[in-house]
């Protein structure tokens, strides 16, 4: 089960056994964080565990395991809220403006930061340094916009928006593709050329068949005159 | 020369025109249907609301309907070919200028207004010229042409998505604009029928619905050129009014099911990909319905008005039954039925218009019909939305749509009765004329 936490809190995780295995209820359950076993105070019921989630280190995967003839286990993932970027890349052109949107689902981040990924490094985007290139706006509590003006080929790449929560940071990704204006122009000109060629062919064919008709009618009249 | 052109080709070059109209349908209506894929992209790029972005399509549809009568009156003065080529250029310019994407208002003006005008100028003459080229096989020709919309819509979905992923929405618009330029190619193929004035005069003698025959022939003998202007007098004809009211009611219900099918599907717990498959099913059975109905109508077993009444009744039945669906399979089956009968209706309703109005006034009739029908198209979705909000369930929308269609079928039946009565009245008139004619000849014999 996935559990999303955005601020420090106390939480109780409980595991429950299916009815068909209720004969195993009397056995004890081991709780683990990752691979390490947690030694917890023996409460009446080891099937529940209370955790104080106070900082990032407390987040992770917790599992309850029942060892008997068969081993049963269940896993809880305690995590920071997910950030929604954009799955499909944004395709733009040189000189154009691009707006990238990041949304936090349900939880309000403390702060937003935008990064551009260059290879494996992430470079933070400073909009105060380059105000006529980047504009970062926080539209609402959960939504941030990055507007990039006067796009060039160098702006092509993956952009990350990072939301800072009390318990940690979370990232969303958007891919930006910058094309030159020639890219769509080539297929466009190809189609236009095809249209012009077809229209010319059809016109010529029609002129030709009309001439043939007139010629044929001329011959008919000639024959009629001859008969007379 | 006259004898050669006294009948519409009903084949031959007509089939080239049908293919060309098929393409035009696809390049206009299908592009409009699939434009929704651009919504999110445009909305995010300009940082606007979803409702503001959706006005683009509203503008396109509005201009399409308002432009239809303008387009058909231009057809009457200039040729169909010229108007279609103009439409192609307009649609292309709309999309190509949309590539510049300056701001939202720019998008309204380009992908909204220009595109809508282009679609109106391409679609209306394309539909009309098919009816001009055929008489006996008209139903089949119209059906094949209208099937273009489904065929293209089916492929444009994934194709547009791929274009957007490769070139972004701006580049995709530019390329689609170029593709729409092919409308001009189709337009060039639409050869105008020679000496259409004389052609339409002889048309009216063979085809106008009974009751109009006597008065029309007088008019045409006197001035064969008068009917080349847009005929507003159509609104005075009761059959046209009946058919127009049918059009309004049908349009009110036609836009509702596609709108509510997706939310209804979600509310039943069906996920995104399965819902998308429902829409694909709809497109496929729509295509099949159009072709099958065209083939059947071509057999001339039933009168087109009767056929249309049957298809409308069948759609309303499927819509009334659709809310009974409670899982994917039943929803898919009912959607299939609805889509199939929707296709049959679309395939045949233009042919019925031609029968109601007669070929000389067909262009004017088509334009007027589209204009009047648009009111239904505008009222329908908001009204249905209101009823759904009040009832709290999407099923209510389907019941309303079904009920509106039943009402519209009533008008069709009235129209049919009216036409039949006129027919009977005319038959008795001609019988009386024949008997009076025989008397003078007897007189002559007596005198001799």
TrEMBL record, chain A:
One of its GO terms (molecular function) is cell-cell adhesion mediator activity. Residues 1-76, 81-180 form the Ig-like domain. The chain crosses the membrane at residues 185-205. It holds the Pfam family V-set_CD47. CDD domains: Ig. Keywords: Immunoglobulin domain, Membrane, Transmembrane, Transmembrane helix. One of its GO terms (cellular component) is plasma membrane. GO terms for biological process: axon guidance; dendrite self-avoidance; homophilic cell adhesion via plasma membrane adhesion molecules. Gene3D superfamilies: Immunoglobulins. Signal peptide: none annotated. PANTHER family: BASIGIN RELATED (PTHR10075), EMBIGIN (PTHR10075:SF4). This is Embigin.
TrEMBL record, chain B:
It is found in: Membrane. One of its GO terms (molecular function) is monocarboxylic acid transmembrane transporter activity. PROSITE patterns: MFS. Its main location: membrane. Keywords: Membrane, Transmembrane, Transmembrane helix. The chain crosses the membrane at residues 12-35, 55-76, 83-106, 112-133, 140-160, 172-190, 240-262, 274-293, 305-325, 331-354, 366-384, 396-415. It comes from the Eukaryota. Residues 14-420 form the Major facilitator superfamily (MFS) profile domain. It is a multi-pass membrane protein. GO terms for cellular component: membrane. This is Monocarboxylate transporter 2. It comes from Pterocles gutturalis (yellow-throated sandgrouse).
């Amino acid at each position: 089960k996935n559990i999303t936490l955005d601020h420090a809190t106390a939480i109780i995780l409980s595991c429950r056994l299916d009815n068909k295995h209720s004969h195993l209820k009397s056995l004890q359950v081991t709780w683990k964080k990752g691979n390490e076993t947690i030694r917890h105070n023996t409460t009446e019921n080891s099937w529940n565990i209370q955790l104080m989630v106070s900082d990032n280190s407390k987040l992770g995967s917790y599992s309850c395991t029942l060892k008997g003839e068969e081993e049963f286990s269940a896993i809880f993932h305690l995590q920071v809220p997910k950030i929604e970027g954009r799955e499909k890349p944004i395709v733009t052109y040189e000189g154009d403006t691009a707006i990238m949107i990041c949304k936090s689902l349900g939880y309000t981040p403390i702060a937003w930061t935008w990064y551009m990924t260059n290879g494996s490094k992430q470079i933070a985007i400073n909009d105060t340094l380059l105000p006529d290139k980047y504009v970062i706006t926080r539209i609402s509590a959960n939504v941030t916009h990055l507007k990039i003006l006067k796009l060039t080929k160098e702006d092509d790449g993956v952009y990350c928006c990072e939301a800072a929560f009390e318990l940690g940071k979370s990232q969303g990704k958007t891919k930006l593709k910058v094309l030159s204006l020639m890219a769509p122009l080539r297929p466009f000109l190809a189609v236009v050329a095809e249209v012009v060629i077809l229209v010319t062919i059809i016109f010529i064919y029609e002129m030709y068949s009309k001439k043939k008709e007139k010629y044929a009618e001329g011959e008919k009249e000639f024959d009629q005159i001859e008969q007379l | 020369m006259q004898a050669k052109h006294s009948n519409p080709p009903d084949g031959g070059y007509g089939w080239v025109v049908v293919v060309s109209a098929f393409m035009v349908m696809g390049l206009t209506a299908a592009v409009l249907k699939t434009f929704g894929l651009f919504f999110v992209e445009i909305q995010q790029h300009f940082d606007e609301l979803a409702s503001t972005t959706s006005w683009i399509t509203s503008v396109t549809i509005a201009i399409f309907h308002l432009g239809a009568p303008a387009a058909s009156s231009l057809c009457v003065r200039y040729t169909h070919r010229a108007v279609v080529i103009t439409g192609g250029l307009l649609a292309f310019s709309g999309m190509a200028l949309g590539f510049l994407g300056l701001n939202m208002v720019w998008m309204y003006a380009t992908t909204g207004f220009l595109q809508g005008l282009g679609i109106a100028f391409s679609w209306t003459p394309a539909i009309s010229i098919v009816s001009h080229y055929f008489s006996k096989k008209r139903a089949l020709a119209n059906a094949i042409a209208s099937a273009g919309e489904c065929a293209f819509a089916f492929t444009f979905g994934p194709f547009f998505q791929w274009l957007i992923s490769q070139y972004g929405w701006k580049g995709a618009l530019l390329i689609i604009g170029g593709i729409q330029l092919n409308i001009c190619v189709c337009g060039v193929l639409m050869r105008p029928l020679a000496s259409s004035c004389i052609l339409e005069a002889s048309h009216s003698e063979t085809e106008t619905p009974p009751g109009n025959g006597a008065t029309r022939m007088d008019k045409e003998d006197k001035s064969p050129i008068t009917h080349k202007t847009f005929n507003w007098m159509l609104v005075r004809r009761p059959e046209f009014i009946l058919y127009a009211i049918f059009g309004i009611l049908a349009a009110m219900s036609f836009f509702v099911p596609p709108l509510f099918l997706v939310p209804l599907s979600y509310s039943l717990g069906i996920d995104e990909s399965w819902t998308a498959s429902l829409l694909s099913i709809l497109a496929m059975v729509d295509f099949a319905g159009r072709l099958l109905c065209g083939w059947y109508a071509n057999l001339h077993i039933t009168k087109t008005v009767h056929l249309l009444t049957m298809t409308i009744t069948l759609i309303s039945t499927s819509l009334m039954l659709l809310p009974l669906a409670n899982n994917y399979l039943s929803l898919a089956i009912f959607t299939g039925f609805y889509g199939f009968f929707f296709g049959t209706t679309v395939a045949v309703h233009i042919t019925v218009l031609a029968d109601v109005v007669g070929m000389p006034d067909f262009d004017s009739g088509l334009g007027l019909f589209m204009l009047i029908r648009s009111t239904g198209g505008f009222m329908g979705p908001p009204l249905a939305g209101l009823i759904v909000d009040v009832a709290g369930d999407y099923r209510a929308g389907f019941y309303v749509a079904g009920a509106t269609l039943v009402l519209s079928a009533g008008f069709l039946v009235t129209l049919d009765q009216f036409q039949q009565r006129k027919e009977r009245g005319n038959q008795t008139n001609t019988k009386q004329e024949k008997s009076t004619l025989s008397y003078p000849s007897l007189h002559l014999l007596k005198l001799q």
